[in-house]
Design a protein that fits this description.
Elements: E1 9-13, H1 18-29, E2 33-38, H2 41-51, E3 55-59, H3 65-79, E4 84-87, H4 102-130, E5 133-138, H5 151-171, E6 176-183, H6 196-204, H7 211-222, E7 232-235
Parallel strand pairs: 1-2, 1-4, 2-3, 4-5, 5-6, 6-7
Helix pairs in contact: 1-7, 3-4, 4-5
Length: about 240
């Protein structure tokens, strides 16, 4: 038995492009009312035009946590409940550690860790009050298997995994499910930061996925019957070697 997303209220952070946009699209197609939180004004306008009346957009800067809190207040004032948070926004940095820019690391770590954690915390009071909800974080295969080509990114996703597993236990008594999706390489703008030779090798080997693969996984997780949680869902291209 599966549950329906009809009339559910969902939030997707970083939902104006890439994985987040496709997840928003599939949530809308499955009957949810979706709020996309992103800072890219033009991309938000395009998403709203493309996905119709069940897609709402709020321009936020995830580094300014008060804008996220205000967005949650706005959603609750309009809908009176929040059923789903997909904490998807993230960034990528790879390369040799001794060649990296620590200032760039800080920005990525703040987005991948702090912004994700704060976004999750922002929806918890409403979900705890209503005794239901789903929090799903976009993690990575790097959160499970250390990837030598991307030590800082790997560390950030290990933090996401630890967070997901601990808050899942804390929130379970309130009827809130928490899970994480761990995709391998997905064709998104984040690939712009990959080493060109590594990217070329992965493309030639067919070791890449599409945003739709992650969105389908999200919908699968959210539609399990009440009382069943998909704690971790790993998605890999068939030829991806880890």
């Amino acid at each position: 038995m599966t549950s329906s997303l009809q009339n559910k209220v969902a939030i997707v952070t970083g939902g104006a492009s890439g994985i987040g946009l496709e997840c928003a699209r599939q949530l809308v197609e499955n009957g949810a009312t979706v709020y996309v939180l992103d800072r890219d004004h033009q991309a938000l306008e395009a998403a709203r035009a493309a996905l119709g009346k069940h897609l709402h957009t709020i321009e936020v800067d995830l580094f300014r946590y008060e804008t996220v809190d205000r967005a949650i207040e706005t959603i609750l004032s309009e809908q009176d409940h929040i059923d789903i948070l997909h904490a998807n926004a993230g960034a990528y940095i790879g390369g040799n550690i001794w060649e990296g820019d620590p200032d760039a690391w800080d920005k990525m770590l703040n987005l991948n860790i702090n912004a994700a954690f704060r976004s999750a915390r922002a929806v918890m009071p409403a979900m705890m009050k209503q005794k239901s909800g789903d929090i799903v974080l976009t993690s990575s295969i790097a959160g499970i298997v250390p990837i030598p080509a991307e030590p800082i990114y790997t560390a950030s996703k290990h933090a996401v995994q630890a967070f997901a597993h601990t808050i899942r236990r804390q929130l379970a008594p309130f009827g809130i499910r928490v899970g994480a999706i761990q995709p391998g390489p997905v064709v998104t703008p984040l690939l712009n930061d990959w080493d060109p030779e590594r990217l070329k090798a992965n493309i030639e080997a067919g070791a890449m996925m599409q945003p739709a693969d992650v969105a389908e996984a999200l919908v699968f997780m959210l539609t399990r019957r009440k009382g069943t949680v998909v704690r971790d869902l790993v998605l890999l291209p068939h030829s991806f070697d880890v």
